[in-house]
Structure formats: structure tokens, C-alpha cells
Amino acid sequence: MNKRIFLSSPHMSGSELGYIGEVFESNYIAPLGVFVDRFEESIKNYTGAKNALALNSGTAAIHLALRVLGIGEGDDVLASTFTFIGSINAILYERANPVFIDSDEKSWNLSPFLLEKYLKECSKKPKALIVTHLYGQSADIKSIAMICKEYGVYLVEDAAESLGATFDGKHTGTFGDFGIYSFNGNKILTTSGGGMLVGSNKEWIEKARFYSTQAREPFVHYEHNDYGYNYRMSNVLAAIGVGQMEVIEDRVAKKREIFEWYKELLGDIKEINFMPELPNSRGNRWLTALTFAKTDYRKVMQALEEINVESRPLWKPMHMQPLFKDAKRLVDGTSEELFSKGLCLASSTTMSYEDVFMISQKIKETIKA
Ligand SMILES: *Cc1c(COP(=O)(O)O)cnc(C)c1O
User: Fold this and answer.
1) Which fold has domain 248-368?
2) Ligand 1 in contact with 8 (CB < 6 A)?
3) How far apart are CA 358 and CA 349, in angstroms?
């Protein structure tokens, strides 16, 4: 049996261990240290974000964004329904109400049309929108940002999956009031676990920095006027992040190449539709995602499992989750349809053309059978 091929495995650059060695030599194992600063700098340089704050997860980054924006009990917060729950949980932490908006077919991401329709017709004005750039593909973020501005809704970009993706040459995560990235184990880069909050408002990022370290006032005796969290990234993990950032463009290029290989090998099959990429955008193609018009995706999953290859259904939309059965929503069936037909294929940057060829062959056989 071949070695298991994962959806998206960690892929080190080779510099990480050396940097971790420096951390150990300096004995700044924890909590902070020069690598945390260097990691924040490298994210700012790469994405063009004005300010950055390294945290222990992407979820923590979303939570701090909502906290700084003053989202509280009973507030409505709009969100993409077609996403991972990590995008939504922080709304619940603040006892606010998620309101789910469906995707459009052009981007598989949040529909600007439905967003505007909701804002025009709603009786209670939402305070913020959390929009996900799904599977590393940019949403129609310029239109979405314009609508948010017009209606006075704060914009938080969940770019957990989309580091390196751009729209009109500008990085996802830098259009909104806040953007977040994740460095969880399966993302395009990983620090084994971690996140980053970015934003152009320096005061807001400083406020988030304050909340992320237990809201300690600047006194040696630990004075507290407010409550916070223990959300900062450790210096050891930031050292991994600095090593990973050296190869971000190589990783984006490889993810995009893997997508092109699948497209070359499967693109002729009529019933297969690949996730689109909006004009003027460059996705990082974190996962190659597609739908089957006729074949049951579960059959394909099972066939791939037989050759020890991981695949996953597309995210189950949030408005279909039992947890959110009573949540407000504006949906038109788009994400439900995608969920019923779609699959994410193995897209690890460690994969070779032969791996993609073998997987594609198996998919072709399964469709014919
Ligand atoms: C991974 C992910 C998150 C959460 O990031 P963590 O670092 O795992 O907390 C949030 N939103 C989306 C869309 C994600 O894929």
C-alpha cells in the first residue's frame, strides 16, 4: 500500500529547525521573543497589512476582532454560511447572533447580491460581517467591502484558508476592518497551530494585543480594569512561522500547479465542475474542490480511500447545522447544492504529478463504473 496522501499536509521549508535552535539558545522559549516580532513583520511585508498581531489560533483572531469592535450580547453578525465553524464560533463566545448569507455560483463565496438584499430588507441592522475566502479563493471582496461601507457594517475577513490569495492584486485579509489568517496544521502554511490578526487601524490592533495578554494594564503589580484572554503566540511557534513564510510563494505556486494537473486530467469529464476563480483574482488553491453532476461523491471518496488517499466533502453549510437551526438566514440553495455534490481532493504541496495522476485515474474509473 502507498503512503497515505493527505488533503493538505504540513510542508516545512527546512529553515524552521535552525530558527527553533536560535530560540532555544536565547532561552526565550516563552512567552514572547524576537521571532514573534519577525513573524508579524513578515506577514505585514508579504500581505501589505499595516499592523499584525500573532496569536495562538485563527479562531482567537476572529474573537479579538469582534471584541474590539464591541460586538456583544444580542447583536446580529452576518457571516458566510458556506464555511468552517471556526469562522462562526467567536460570534457565540460574545453571545451575539449569527445571520447566515448564501454563496453565489460565480465564486462559491458569499453573494454580494444576497448581502445587499438582506441589508436592505432587515428590520435589525447587523453590526458586522465575517466573510470567508473559501478554499483559498477570494470572495467578490471589493463589492462586499463597498456594501458594508454603505450600510455601516464592520467587515472582518476570514482569510484563514487564503493566505497568498489576491483580488485586484491586493491580498485577501487587507480589505476589511480586520483580517485573520490561520496556521493550523492543514493550512497552506503551518506553525502546528496559530493565527494572525491584521488591520489598518493601529489602535484597534493595539487594543487586541492588550486583550490577548490578559488585559494587563502597564503596572508591575498587574492592574486590571477590563478582562482579556491568553491568546498570544509562543516564540517557538513563531520561529516555525518565520521559516514557513520564506516559501509562501512557492507553496501558492505548487497548490495552483496541483489544481492545473487535476484540471488537465479531469477537465474533459462533462459532469465535473471545478471551483471557479473570479476574474482579477488569484486564489491560493488551498484545496482543489469540485462537484460531480451525476456520480455520488461518497462513491468517489470511498474509492480514493481504497488507495489510501484522503478526500473530504465540501463544508456543510452553517444554516444546515443542528446548532444553528433557529439562526436567521438568507439562503437560495446554492451552498446546499454545492454541499450535496462536492468534494475536496488531496492537494498537499508535497504531492507529485504521479500522485495526482493516480488519483485522477481512480476518479475516472469510479465515474465509469
Ligand atoms: C481553519 C479555519 C479557521 C480557524 O482557524 P484555527 O487557527 O484553526 O483556529 C477559521 N475559519 C476558516 C474558514 C478556517 O478554515
Assistant:
1) Aspartate Aminotransferase, domain 1 (3.90.1150)
2) no
3) 16
Q: In what order do the strands lie in the sheet with 288-292?
A: 272-274, 288-292, 342-345, 312-313
Over residues 259-281, the pLDDT tens digits come to 999 999 999 999 999 999 999 99
| Ligand 1 neighbour 286 (Cβ under 6 A) | no
Q: Please state the atom number of ligand 1 nearest to the C-alpha of residue 186.
A: 1
Rounded distance, CA 248 to CA 181, Å?
13
Distance CA(132)–CA(184), nearest Å, equals: 16
Atom 3 of ligand 1, nearest CA residue: 86
pLDDT in tens, 27-37: 988 778 899 99
The residue among 186, 349, 240, 253 whose CA lies nearest residue 15 is: 240
Contact predicate 256/263, CB 8 Å: no
**Measured from the CB, is residue 184 less than 6 Å from ligand 1?**
yes
Task: Give, in degrees to the nearest 5, the angle at Cα 195 between 192 and 198.
Answer: 155
Phi, psi at 253, each rounded to 5°: -60, -40
Does ligand 1 lie within 6 Å of residue 179's CB atom? no
**Rounded Cα distance, 273 and 3, in Å:** 28
Where along the chain do its domains lie? 16-245, 248-368
Does residue 2 have a pLDDT over 80?
A: no
Q: Report the separation in Å between the CA atom of 347 and the middle of ligand 1, taken as the mean of its atom positions.
A: 17
CATH classification code of 16-245: 3.40.640.10
Q: Is the CB of 58 under 6 A from ligand 1?
A: yes
* Paired sense of beta strands 76-80 and 97-101, if any: parallel
SS3 category, 195: strand
**Cα–Cα separations (whole angstroms), residue 163 to 132, 134, 188, 312, 341:** 12, 11, 7, 21, 26
Task: Please list, in sequence order, all residues whose beta carbon lies within 8 angstroms of the beta carbon of residue 113, skipping any fewer than 6 positions away.
Answer: 104
Which of 56, 62, 87 has most ligand 1 atoms within 8 Å of CB, for mutation?
87
Does residue 318 surpass a pLDDT of 70? Answer: yes
